Amino acid sequence: MKKIITFLTILMLSCAGIFAQEVDGDIPDGASFVFDGFENGNYWIWAGFDWHQYGDFCYASGANISREWASEGSHSLEMTIDEMPPDAKKAGIWFYDGTNDMSGSKYIVMDFYNPEDITYYIDIAIQATSGWNWCDLGSFALPKGEHHVVLSMEKFTERLYDVKRVLIYNNTAGAYPKDAHFFVDNIRLIK
Question: pTM of the entire structure?
Answer without folding.
Answer: 0.85
